[in-house]
Write a structure and sequence with these properties.
The chain is an alpha+beta fold and about 375 residues long. It has two domains: about 1-65 and about 145-220 and about 320-365, FAD/NAD(P)-binding domain, CATH 3.50.50; about 90-140 and about 225-315, D-Amino Acid Oxidase, subunit A, domain 2 (D-Amino Acid Oxidase, Chain A, domain 2, 2-Layer Sandwich), CATH 3.30.9.10. Helices cover about 30% and strands about 30% of the residues. The chain has nine helices and 20 strands. The chain has helices at about 10-25, 60-80, 100-110, 120-125, 145-160, 205-210, 285-295, 330-335, 350-365, and strands at about 1-10, 30, 50, 85, 90, 115-120, 135-140, 140-145, 165, 170-175, 180-185, 190-200, 225-235, 240-245, 255-260, 265, 270-275, 305-315, 325-330, 340. Strands 1, 2, 9, 10, 11, 12, 19 and 20 form an eight-stranded mixed sheet that branches. Strands 13, 15, 16, 17 and 18 form a five-stranded antiparallel sheet that branches. The longest helix is centred in the first third of the chain and has 20 residues, at about 60-80. The radius of gyration is 21 Å and the shape is elongated. The chain binds flavin-adenine dinucleotide. Flavin-adenine dinucleotide binds near residues 9 and 228.
Amino acid sequence: MFFDVTIIGAGVVGLSIAKFCSEQGYSVVVLEQESRAGEGISSRNSGVIHAGIYYPENSFKTKFCVSGNELLYEYANQKRINHKKIGKYIIASHKNDIEKLHKIYNQGIKNLVEVDLFSNRKMKEIYPDLKIEEAIFSPNTGIIDVPELISALEGDIQHNGGLISFNTNFIAAEKIEHGFKIICNDGSSYEIDTRYLVNASGLYSDMISQKIDVLDEGHFSSVKYAKGHYFKYNGNHPFTTLVYPLANEFSSGLHVGFDLSGQIRFGPDITWVDEIDFSFDESLKSTFVESIKKYWPQIDSAKLHPDYVGIRPKLQSFNETMKDFSIKSFRDHGVDGLINIQGVESPGVTSCLSIGKHVLNLIKS
Ligand SMILES: Cc1cc2nc3c(=O)[nH]c(=O)nc-3n(C[C@H](O)[C@H](O)[C@H](O)COP(=O)(O)OP(=O)(O)OC[C@H]3O[C@@H](n4cnc5c(N)ncnc54)[C@H](O)[C@@H]3O)c2cc1C
């Protein structure tokens, strides 16, 4: 069996890459260990279409988020994927946070993202029940139904003749002339020859990197896991937009998110863990309530219930500063035909189509 492009992982990143490659006439296979697409990080997130405010202007995170935001709204409209541009307030609930808020605002301006500063008086009119000293409004932030996005991508790949092979484990890759020999297992072991190999395996990207015989240890990173818990709120609430408090010494900055039915939830927190484990720590509830009370004093804690957890594939440890998405090709690691992707945490859903286009360009170049 030969494919031009073999992609490990049917999350939003791998599927987006497969969509763009298959559109260009490349024969494509996506190997996915689970029985459905999106069962990894892609189905356990906030579903927010971010605007690209926070990250340094020259980072992949900014570049792919800003262009991905536009591409994703366009794609969602074209495919009738449920989504809503509901907007987001980033709020400072304490005077000590205003300087930090202004820094974020200035970063948004540098990133050429539409942002407005709202005063305490204005925010009292919009959200009289919330404690807000000052806020940034981002009109282009929204929410999307990620399972529908995944289905649309799968549909495109199949329409273009691409293959998504479920229950199929990538075992190892060996470099051959003009490509790779790949060993997979779907109950029995078999081989695929491919010209290009893309590692889009999310939380597993370091383990997969180790199984590519010619990739030196120095050219990939170990993945650290940062769990995020979500609690849903079953009751009346004042929220009509996303609300993102700042993390500081007074609060862990737990966001208010929505799904498309209007159900609100708070989270995610950051709990560093050593293993990929999606169990829910219900004892976090009191920390959540305490943190939310800093900006919404009337929260009724009895209405807050455990919802789900996601895990971020971080390239930095808890005491290090933000690391960028890592998308490495021949000119970085010297392995012809290999695109190795790591650290695609948030805003990875927003960025997926832009990353897909970028990887296609790497393959074409
Ligand atoms: C808590 C949380 C909140 C987030 N919120 C947002 C948000 O609001 N907006 C936003 O833009 N982004 C958000 N993100 C980020 C976003 O969810 C991720 O960046 C994105 O889903 C990553 O997709 P992926 O395709 O890289 O990984 P995944 O979805 O994990 O896909 C990788 C796939 O590889 C498969 N795989 C692994 N090993 C093998 C193997 N050996 N063989 C075959 N298959 C294999 C896995 O089963 C998996 O399906 C959030 C992330 C988290 C954790």
